[in-house]
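Table S4 entry, Cytochrome b561 and DOMON domain-containing protein.
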Amino acid sequence: MAAAALIALVLTLLAAASPPPAQAAGGSGRCAGETFSSNRAYASCSDLPRLGASVHWTYDRASGDLSVAFVASPAAPGGWVAWGLNPSGDGMPGAQALVAGPFGSAGAWAVRTYNISGYALGAPGPIAFPASGLAAELGTDGRARVYGTLSLGAYGGGVLNQVWQVGAAVSGGNPAPHAMGADNLAAKAKLDLLRDTSTAAGADSATRKRQIHGVLNAVSWGVLLPTGAIFARYLKTFRSADPAWFYLHVTCQLAGYGVGVSGWATGINLGRESVGVTYADHRNIGIAVFALGTLQVLALFLRPKKEHKYRAYWNAYHHSVGYAVIVLGIVNIFKGMGILGVEQRWRTAYIAAVCVLVIAAATLEAVTWGVVVRRRKAEGKPFGGGGANGHLPH
């Protein structure tokens, strides 16, 4: 049963990290039927989840230029729309925005750029991504279309944070504050240029590498190692499972470490290929997990015999470092999901997998404590810190 559950969890994670079907040039949702003036056309598009907006783009990986069109309806006639990228977070502060509205003479639509430093729009000015070809128009259908080309440079090598917004009015030539409804506050998402742009095989290759990196690390640090720890902590309480528990534990941990090393290596390679794109927390935690995992493997060669006076110290080290690896590994898996922009359903699937492991551990904890207590009473031995042969206290 344990093996079947493990296989099911692994298959779930593999499905979660499998690349989605390739998006055809022009997209596959409502945005696919969009047309633009001056014969503008874009390789990809996405219907955004809030405010009825969509974004269309063509990304030139060689030059780092992103040609974009943003489509949305102002919150009211005479209102404004905005779209931007945020290189430092996933909200409004730090966004490099294109804001369009009736800013021109006689109410003509125009585009301004804003480098937003807080929760106030501030004054228009240059943004971090040099912008060209800016234009805007209000269609007869009441929707605004904003055009421009942003020079992303190295920032275009990964998953981008995009934000967008609509407002109801322009006051004194400036956009009035937008509403604070649920959709307005949640108008943010990921934009994966490498996955969604259908122009180059190199982009598909980079996406596949990131998917493989995620699968390997989720299966190793996120499933195999916790499963191996469960075998070691609980099965050894049952005398009939000795020494099977030890071989199951070692098999899971060595397999998990081997797969984890592969995942770590793919991450290092991705870092080298993504010059200027750094996910510091994810990288640093990954390095820590790999280093601690390597120490665990090396510690096997220094494992004292059961009777040795230093065995208790070795056990304390082995258990504490092992649990640290598991916790940090799971935390980093969720950070990686955020970076990849994994859909919520796959995030939920992994949460369910972790819950299965937690429930299994909690159930076995109760059962094995009962076994140890009954065994101690039957043997007439006190239950305390010296219960090494009960196996459960670590």
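The first strand starts at residue 44 and ends at 47.
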